[in-house]
Design goal:
Blueprint (H helix, E strand, L loop, with lengths): L21 H16 L24 E2 L3 E5 L2 H5 L3 E3 L1 H7 L1 H4 L13 H9 L4 E5 L9 E7 L4 E3 L2 E6 L4 E10 L9 E11 L4 E10 L3 E11 L4 E8 L4 E10 L5 E10 L4 E10 L5 E10 L4 E10 L6 E11 L5 E10 L4 E11 L2 H8 L5 H17 L4 H14 L4
Helix pairs in contact: 1-5, 6-7, 7-8
Length: 406
């Protein structure tokens, strides 16, 4: 593909380039330049071998605003937590936004990240002051347009020192059929967990069928901070997501516990990254996948430990459960360890339900469909324990709907 093909060039007349103060306009223009100069990722390179990037370029469609509903607990409002559009936050809380915006996801991160860095509109900003604990979750719901549109959500979350927050980031909507084409989403999430903070971030993707999603999530944990990331994916026709955490302080900890359930001809491509940039840090990854019909999943996961970052612990697991012939799962867990004073392991499994398990449950009077539901629910159980109870109930409903007819 010729990178100068006008189909993949953001023109200088693009209205988003004029949004925001001068410093933001400059960053948008720099991102536009990087987007136009970078070629599309080559299908032969590691992270793009399973997905065609041509299917995820979004701006050729009609761009619309990122419409977000905020469900904010009263205790958050009383304790000075800020939840607003990123555009408004730049106007009224510049000192909180400017040091962090574009620090973790920017035009140097890749071509599609440069696209988002140029074209995002409203965005979302969440700020938790120091020493504030919010027990109930803050819930963001992104509503995607029903037509063949493009939306570029951008979320910045800053969690202060010794603070605690649970954030649910939900994506829903989009066209139901492919008759008129697909809706496109290209999202970016940046999360900063300051010293001794505790952040729980839950991403729920339940988009309608004719929607394609590309999303890059990057978080940073400072000294003694903990970060729990839970990617949950059920919808869309094509979804490629990248979840990564930079462990940047002693005793920082990150866990990524994800699950997805694919059916029909859905295509999922997930990548995780734990980058241990400081010694005495800990990480764990556990990604679970269930597939039926002709659904496809690809997973690549990287643990990187630098030469001077000693006494780290890092673990990574990907489990894939295939409910019928015709599904396909690919899994590539990786370690990039530049010193020997660490404790690391990785593993992956791909398989179907053991017929003996079905036989065991049948022999106790449980019909096969109910037996399958029990096995799949048990497969997901350890991950679902990490999410709030009301959301857990909704996910159990999603799973039950997907298992109809199995």
């Amino acid at each position: 593909m010729n990178i100068k093909d006008s189909k993949y060039i953001i023109p200088d007349s693009t209205p988003e380039l004029e949004l925001g103060p001068d410093w933001l306009k400059e960053r948008r223009r720099s991102a536009r330049h990087n987007f136009n100069e970078q070629p599309l990722p080559h299908r032969g390179i590691h992270l793009w071998r399973y997905t065609d990037p041509n299917d995820l370029i979004a701006f050729t469609h009609k761009a619309i605003d990122d419409v977000v509903d905020y469900n904010i607990p009263n205790e958050a409002r009383k304790n000075g937590v800020i939840v607003t559009s990123l555009t408004k936050a730049i106007e009224s809380h510049l000192e909180l936004v400017e040091p962090h915006l574009y620090q973790l996801v920017n035009s140097e991160s890749g071509k599609l990240e440069a696209e988002n860095s140029t074209l995002w509109r409203n965005g979302t900003f969440v700020y938790v002051p120091n020493k504030v604990t919010i027990s109930d979750p803050i819930h963001l719901t992104h509503h995607i347009g029903k037509d063949t549109s493009s939306v570029f959500p951008r979320t910045l979350v800053v969690v202060g020192k010794q603070s605690e927050i649970t954030l649910i980031d939900e994506y829903e909507g989009g066209p139901e059929t492919e008759e008129n084409g697909h809706a496109h989403i290209n999202g970016a999430i940046e999360i900063v967990g300051m010293e001794a903070s505790n952040t729980r971030y839950i991403s729920l993707q339940r988009l309608s069928h004719a929607t394609r999603m590309y999303q890059t999530h990057r978080a940073r944990t400072d000294k003694s901070a903990t970060m729990l990331t839970i990617p949950l994916a059920f919808g869309g026709s094509l979804t490629k997501q990248n979840f990564g955490v930079l462990l940047d302080g002693a005793e920082a900890e990150s866990r990524i516990y994800g699950l997805l359930f694919g059916s029909g001809h859905q295509h999922f491509d997930n990548h995780t990254l734990h980058h241990h940039a400081h010694g005495e840090t800990n990480s764990d990854i556990d990604i679970k996948v269930v597939l039926k019909d002709k659904a496809v999943s690809a997973y690549t996961g990287l643990i990187r430990i630098e030469q001077e970052t000693r006494n780290c612990e890092a673990y990574q697991t990907n489990r894939n459960l295939l409910l019928n012939p015709g599904t396909r799962a690919e899994t590539i867990p990786e370690l990039e360890i530049l010193n020997e004073n660490v404790s690391c392991s990785h593993g992956a499994t791909i398989g179907s339900i053991d017929p003996l398990d079905i036989f065991f449950l049948n022999s106790r009077g449980i019909p096969t469909p109910e037996a399958v539901r029990m096995i799949v629910t048990g497969f997901f159980a350890s991950t679902l324990k990490q999410v709030p109870e009301d959301l857990r109930e909704r996910i159990n409903v999603f799973v039950a709907e997907r298992l109809e007819g199995v």
